[in-house]
Specification:
homodimer; five-stranded parallel β-sheet; Rossmann fold; about 40% helix; about 230 residues
Chain lengths: ~230, ~230
């Protein structure tokens, strides 16, 4: 029996991936894995747990904070930098990259999840779902979301696992509005998800990821079910 | 100024890489990183520390044991399996892979080291040295040492780091005897290194890696300077 492991951050994209994986493989064959890497708040991990509960899938958590402790990325709890507001586009114009790029995060999380997938499903081909989407890589905002990064990383994971792992990035060429469209079809519980980079009670509605999320629902003539400040 | 980060396990191959990197970049620009991932013994980490001291380079240690805790690989301390003796060739004939394959270890370590390299050298191009060599991949013994794995993983790391990282695998097409030949030229302190999979006072001389090491020195008409049982 083929299995699936889904990188689950508690946000829109990965939760939609989880919905897809459950539809395709059945909840008993799906494991969700969430990574803590030193984020300023762990609200997204709480959301990831609730989403796994909603779907009735096995949920694992991994801690990569020790690896990221040398980084001064503004997303990390030990950084003094403030998270910048405004669009990714403006940040790229200013710095050549977005300040919320966590060094090689997707490569590290994919590798950790690959190691775990081979360990928990030693006898089954396993599909690893990751919710990167076209907007993440727009203007090279996140280098570790680019389609060519995903292509080479996927090949490395397939070869380095004796071909037992296959990476699935169903939204790598789909924009966030397209992700939400698919999620609305699947009935994804977006009310349980969290995207905001700030750790407030309600989403700030001002950071890059809030702006993207609000726009994606709007383009689907839908209302984002989470409360905003 | 370009920098180098060397994956240092305390063994022959990675210590030779460290010698190469110090020759090319100078000790002040080199960082050695050692990974603990749940190995049965930590003698190799002690050796890695001594080697860094010998070269006068910065030494960092990372702990990936939490990721590997789901694996039952015989190399890991929580596994009940005994480490098999005999050549890799015989093990492959028997099982299709070697029992000492730690799930996606090289991918995971390379990714972790990439994240750290971007963090500690944010303004410099950094070369990441890894000591995989041709014998590791012979007969597909270690899938995550195969030249095509290394090729795709290297491309993923380069792209996913905004092209700030370059992976160097100088021995990927060189056998272990060739590695030792280069190390003898460089004056690598092999007396400080450790390769044996067992945790004894002296190397066992019987496990796959001991047999390979002894043969590599013999082919160079040299004597391995470490004591054997």
């Amino acid at each position: 029996m083929e299995k699936a492991v889904v990188l689950s951050s508690g946000g829109v994209d990965s939760t939609t991936c989880l919905g897809l994986a459950v539809e395709k493989f059945g909840k008993e064959n799906v494991t969700a894995i969430s990574a803590f890497y030193g984020q300023k708040h762990d609200k997204e991990l709480e959301c990831a747990r609730k989403v796994s509960e909603f779907y009735g899938v096995r949920h694992l958590e991994i801690n990569l904070a020790d690896i990221m402790k040398y980084s001064d990325c503004s997303l990390l709890s030990h950084s003094d930098k403030e998270i910048k507001h405004g669009s990714y586009e403006d940040q790229i114009k200013e710095n050549g990259k977005v300040e919320t790029y966590v060094p090689f995060r997707n490569g590290l999380i994919l590798s950790a999840v690959s190691a775990i997938a081979l360990s928990i499903n030693p006898d089954d081909k396993t599909h690893i779902y990751i919710g990167v989407h076209a907007d993440d890589a727009a203007g090279d905002a996140y280098a570790d979301c680019r389609p060519d990064f995903m292509e080479y990383m996927s090949k490395a994971i397939n070869i380095g696992s004796y071909e037992n792992l296959v990476v699935e990035a169903p939204f790598v060429n789909v924009d966030k509005a397209g992700v939400v469209k698919e999620g609305l079809r699947l009935g994804v519980p977006y009310e349980l998800t969290w995207s905001c980079y700030e750790g407030g009670e309600k989403a700030c509605g001002k950071c890059g990821t809030c702006l993207d999320r609000l726009k994606a629902f709007e383009l689907n003539n839908a209302v984002d079910p989470i409360p905003y400040e």
